[in-house]
Amino acid sequence: MKTSNDNVDPEGMSPRSLVEMEKMRLQQVLLRAYKSPFYREHWKAANIHPNRVRGLEDLHLLPFTARKELFEAIRTKRGKIACGPINTWFAGSSATNPYEWFPFSSRDFLGISTMLARMSQVIGLQTGDIILAVVDTSPRISSVIPYLWTYSEASRFPRLEFIVGSLDWYDALDMTWIDFIQHRRPTVLFTSTRNALALASKTREDLKIPAKAVLTETRVGIFYGEPLEDCRAELMEAYDLEPFEVYSPTEHMSLCTECGAHRGIHLWMDTCIPEILPFDSEDGLLMREAPAGTKGTLVITNFAECLPLIRYKTEESIIVESVDCCACGRTHPRIRRLPTARTNRKRQ
Amino acid sequence: MNSCGQIDVLHLSLDQLAALSMSRLRNSRTLERAAKSVLYREKWKAADIVAEEIKTYDDFARIPFTTGQDVRKAINENTIEEVVCSDAVVHWFSTTGTTGVPKWIPYSQKDVELFMEIRDRCHELTPSMRGLKCLAVSAPAPFVENGLAALEKIRGMITHTQREGVGICFTRVEHEDAVSFALDIKPNFIATWPSFAARFAELIAEKAPEVAQQKYRKHKSLRNLAAYFLTHVKKIRPRDLSKYRWGLFSGESLDPYRRILNRDFGLEPYEMYIFTEFMCPIIECHMHDGMHLWMDVCLPEIIAEPELERENQNAGYTPRAIPLWKAEQGLRGEYVLTSFGEALPLVRYRSGDLIQVVGTEPCQCGITHPRVRVPRRSDTTICLGAIRFPAEQLEEKLLAVTPYGKARRWQARIMREGYRSKLVIRVEPYGEIVDRESFLDEISKRLMELKILRIGIKNKMVTKPIVLFEERISDEGRPVRKTGRIIYEDGNW
Question: Whole-model pTM?
């Protein structure tokens, strides 16, 4: 759905314009979400019709959507809960389920490439950068990301070169993959925090050298998946690079990115309306109204076509870094992710 | 010309296709670009090849062949910039290393776009995917199948093909959560390796009773109870769970599996062939009479089997290739490819794959591009369907010294048991064997050290090899060094 704001660079928008954009997109998405039996029943049970939500200030009238509840509905009803066309499925994971499937329309899927372009720009990737992408295998969405990154219609990209690999096949390739990496000397590492730790540990064990001795030219690390905070120092030491954290769960692939100021992850307000549910409260706060230092659960309302997230409790514990303009000049609020029990389990 | 004034490339005569192939070779300046690569430079200089002087096929045929080993060596021993012919590489893919060590192949965006164009062309030859629910089982990165699955998905979305897709990497297929979801969407299209699909059908039959029981326990409905009982009186096949319409199979020859796939999935199988070095697919049309090899995007040649045999017997002999457009029906030999790629054009590249010319006359579907089959590798790689490894690795295990004695020669006979490849190996003793049974057990045990074979057996893609003792092995089969022989028994290979 094209809006009048689509031609504006959302990164440089004023806070007021961002709010205006959110307001308009909210009304559109609620009407669409109401077509989903999942939201319709959910809202009926809470005795609320989306017509009553006239602006951001009314968002709190809608009930929260629990992650567990949404994925249980997908598990049992499959595509029937979608409110837009389903063109593909990918699976994320949760503490209890290794495969949490989520549907995407073509627009949702191809839209990821726009966010990848933005991520590249925010992080400062340059033409000629060679990206080593250590991705998970399908049905994980990371398996297609390097290809969406070079998707030809997204002409705003710098020219990048990709070596894509996966740890699934690391052993079977008998180290030839590592040999080639050493030969090609990638400048950027793109992987999950968990894979980065695993790769560092493998090079240490198998080659008896630290990862930085393999990735000698790698100046930037882009880490998604688990929160980076508690292993940032470990990864910097292992790889000798500048780490950037990206927050982008499968169900909200907006690639929210830390900028060069490293003062939190920018939540892209043109892709969602973020709220925080403080740990000591049952009421959500719009992110733009949250005082810095507020700790709580991240709640997202996004504008996806196939299955939008409406007041979706992400199970992500965050702290609001700031809602003021960043040193990089961007106006989108910044958060930090807090390490969770789930992260710690995955690291083990 | 078609009504839009463009060349109707699918229906040109064979002579026109040959001329087009040669003219695209020249117009793309493939040889001039390739000549700058360290992969070709010295070799061509030694053979007195000047790229600018190549005008006719006869000129072209003077160019020395390039092998996978040349590519591997060039990439490993030089800076990448000295090898690639473009500064616009976007992706690297690795071969699986069936000949020993994997190779890394670069692709530019223009190369990827050519894949997209040919992919669209291939889709015109097969039934439509519109409205289908698609299940694709592919390989992990860094293999080309991983990239192709992703690019296929992206292309499908760009071209607004209304379909619903689920992709799973074969390394994840053991995870029931992943597979059961994929089956629950009721796919009616599948894309994967034929042997994998055949095994997948078996797994469904094996697991159906257990899954039905779990479903009934979770939700005690009459329907689930009936389903549970049904699994005890009937062998459940994929076709019982979903209405498959068609399938696209690649990675190995489809012929040995066609009947089984049709029986178990109830689908119309289509064969496709790609390889890492040139990822433009060739595909069969609805006539199912060979795969159309697109002569407008490459210059295909074939080294006939007698020439390969001569080369095999005389290491110094350089075999002669003939252009595919001059090959006779039924000719079998090694596929030699010249691509017009941007990142790394392949010039007279010996693919190592055996092709059989099905026909160079126009197909009944109307398309004029020659049709081929790809039965297996043309070199001494042991081909057990999707499971492949170099014969030299096999020999290392067979001729190893054991506490019970040693073998002098070996002969591997590759046949089928059902759809599965079966390897029967005979070993000839070298001197005295202390305990024959223990000797054979020891060799069998050592064979399990071949990782890819072990994976294939574990996943029931191939049967466990049988090792037999034979005082004097015959000279039947293709020689491997002076000590081994390989025989492909089935006519379908």
Answer: 0.92
